[in-house]
Amino acid sequence: MMNVGGHERKSFSDLNTFQVHPRTKPNRVLMVIYMCAILALLYHHLLYLIRSISLPSLSLFFADLVFAFMWVTSQPFRWRPIRRKVYPENLSRTVDDKDLPPLDVFICTADPYKEPPMEVVNTVLSVLAFDYPSDKISVYVSDDGGSQMTLFAMMEGSRFAKRTTTTATDDQLSCSQQEFQKMKILYEQMKARVELVMERGYVEDDMITTEKEREAFIKWKRGFSRQDHPVVVQVILESNKDIDISGESLPNLIYLSREKRKKFHHNFKAGALNVLIRVSAIMTNAPIVLSLDCDMFCNDPQAPRQALCHLLDPIEGSKIAFVQFPQRYRGINSSDIYNNELKRPFKINAEGLDGLGVVNYVGTGPFINRKAFYGGPLTQTNVNTFPGFNNDKIFDRNSINSRLVLEEAERVAGCKYEQGTNWGLAMGFRYGSLVEDFFTGYRMQCEGWQGVFCDPQTPAFLGDFPISLNDTLIQVKRWSVGLIEVGFSKYCPFTFGTRRHSLLMDMAYGFDSVWPL
Ligand SMILES: O=c1ccn([C@@H]2O[C@H](COP(=O)(O)OP(=O)(O)O[C@H]3O[C@H](CO)[C@@H](O)[C@H](O)[C@H]3O)[C@@H](O)[C@H]2O)c(=O)[nH]1
Ligand SMILES: [Mn+2]
């Protein structure tokens, strides 16, 4: 235990520390005073109602009762907020660089017109530049839009990665202004080619440079539509085979568009993520998974090492399902009059939940322990019952581009694969709510997993927020419907969770799930 700046900081290891928020005690006093005031108000209402019942007085009583309920259930967020710090510089004392765990990164995109492929390329490139051994990174781009333009953009992105270098130390950066200018030109050329394809709406022969690429686009020629098409798995970069100009191996980069058929429900993003879990299990099976929205790029290459400061913690690490970085946005002006920063859910409440051992999973920016997809920490028995899973014997993972691996990947990305299985019910991302992230994180924590909130000063990831009123309303409506779907399901936190975790956690999750009302 350390004492820093007069406030208590408990230290699990030299990798991370946390501090209980200094205003916790005064806050609790305020809570008691507030509670007394609410009770007095309700008592006053009751006295009045006993004397004479009327519709207005009953409605006022009911309204105050609802407000009181919402106030009480929101108090767990204030009970014990904590702030954490990580020390990635100490990581090398715990683990050698060569022994760092492999990392599978999932990037989801769904519509090339709403989420421009160049934006997806930028996100992919930001991940390729992680300060992490590149042969341990595999990037999977899931394209629910089934767009040849997105695949084309990924190919262009990979060409750019090969012609430049991602291993830019301070030294190299300062000495190579010329290199930087060259990179800039290459980037502009790539952007122009991708934008030309976007303008045309398809990839014409003159844009294709190799025979291998031509083969990849053949699938789009036979009655391929966004809602009805076969699986497309394309290995674009293969680690240890593809190198950049400095001779460094590049990470794996895989494009995936799962099978879509009109007869089968695709379960939105949760469905896409479950396919990614299975395909990546076949191809690389990294123990740690990072999930990103395509509009959320990495702003700090240290992010994986920061997450490992928790996931490799000798005492707490094995209990953690995910380390969640907050959603932060670029381009918000300092006064943020429209509250685009969403500080309450993404920072204030997150710190409050973290103090209770749980954290909201917010869809983008979590480093997840792969085991958490397969059941609780003590109920991991189901994993091997799925063919192809953890059955290392039949796969030679040295080549993710082998026929056997690709065939198996296509099989688990098919529409029929999930029928009759536990996927979406007790495994992987859970179906049944439009906010699959909130629902899945909550269910994982019900199973006994913990969540950790990691919010370093430099934002680890930065994204875009909706810029038009229409988009904002659609987003808020979708979030609200998704939360209510959880609140009014058999998993309602006020009833389902109570047997499984603490009352404060249930109240906090319960508050979130009925908040839109
Ligand atoms: O059928 C779908 C629908 C969406 N997506 C992807 O999911 C992500 C999020 O979708 P978006 O439409 O951008 O929703 P937002 O409301 O901006 O996303 C927030 O809310 C979602 C639902 O809670 C979370 O999944 C996200 O991570 C979180 O950033 C994007 O990358 C999409 O490409 C798919 O892959 N398939
Ligand atoms: Mn989004």
Automatic annotation (TrEMBL):
From the broadest rank down, the organism's phylogenetic lineage runs:
Eukaryota, Viridiplantae, Streptophyta, Embryophyta, Tracheophyta
Question: What is the designated name of this protein?
Answer: Cellulose synthase
Sites binding UDP-alpha-D-glucose sit at 114-115, 144
Query: Which keywords annotate this record?
Result: Cell wall biogenesis/degradation, Glycosyltransferase, Membrane, Transferase, Transmembrane, Transmembrane helix
Can you supply a Gene Ontology BP term from the record?
Answer: cell wall organization
Query: What membrane topology is annotated for this entry?
Result: Multi-pass membrane protein
Q: Where in the cell is it found?
A: Endomembrane system
A Pfam family this chain is assigned to: Cellulose_synt
Identify a single GO molecular function assigned to this protein: cellulose synthase (UDP-forming) activity
Which residues make up the binding site for Mn(2+)? 269, 293
List, alphabetically, the SUPFAM superfamilies matched: Nucleotide-diphospho-sugar transferases
InterPro entries reported in the protein's UniProt record: Cellulose_synth, Nucleotide-diphossugar_trans
Claim: Endoplasmic reticulum is one of the keywords in the record: no
Tell me which residues this entry annotates as catalytic. Answer: 144, 437
| GO CC annotations on file | endomembrane system; membrane
* Annotated transmembrane regions: 29-47, 53-74
At the top level of its lineage, which domain of life is listed?
Eukaryota
